Structures are given as C-alpha cells and as structure tokens.
Amino acid sequence: MWNAISYFETLNGKLKTTKDAYHFCRVSGINGLEEVLANYMVKNAFLAVDDSDDGITIRLGGGYFNRRSIVVYVLKKYKITDMSERETVLTETRSIRNSLISKLLVDANNNSEGLNYLNKERIPYHEVPGYFAAGTAGIYFIITIDEPVNLAYNANDWTT
Question: What is the DSSP letter of 19?
Fold first, then answer.
C-alpha cells in the first residue's frame, strides 16, 4: 500500500517553493485540519495531507480494486483585508499544486514510489472556500489510488 503521508512529506522538503517555507502536516479533512490549526499561530504556510478518506471497492477489467482518495491541501496565510495579497497567495498555491501533480505523474509513469496504481484520468482541485481560518487561502486537490484487492472466497473463513 502506497504511503501518501511520507511521499508528500518528502516532496515538501524537496520542492524549492515549499522547502523550509511550508509546514508539512497530517489532517483528517477540511472540517478538521487539526495540525494546521494547532500550528496556525507559529507557521504561515502549510502542505497538509488527508489519507483517512473513505474508499470504495470497484471492478476494473477482470479484477477488484480498493479505490482510496488522498486529499492534499496547500494553504498560506494572508492579511485578510488585502485582496491583492490573497490573489498572490492563490497564484503561489496553484503553482505548487501544479508542481506536485507533475511530480506525481512523472513518478507514476516511471512506476516508482508505488504509484503504479495512481488514477491519472481525473485529479480534481478546489479553492479553499470563503474566509477560511481568518485569512488563509489556498487550494486542495484529490488523487485516487486503485490498489488490487484479493476478494477470493475462502470457505475456511466461515462456520456452518
């Protein structure tokens, strides 16, 4: 199983824009963002990953796969009354998103990092809505991994 947390933490330390500027953290969704909020007073920018999303079992080709979603947040604080600064922050976070996705695609195409099951057909992204966390703007995107699962029936698992 591919480890999204360690993968994006490594990317955060290697991407020139985020290295030493964006604090990496784990979260459990946009309604939680626990480690972002816990570090909000001492950090200005965040790369946060949520790998706790629910999944779905799907049939692809002749087999079954567990599709799980990973949500990546790129967030940065700005002066809440300065819409020009907000636009600058959004431009930066969009650029970071593009850099992260381009690296994901290169790694998936090279069958490295365990990304050979990355769903490359669709990678939706959204701007963080409204006045999030009193002056934080950014973007989040969602990737899906379709990992094969063995669903072969085993009669020994059942009692009669």
Answer: T
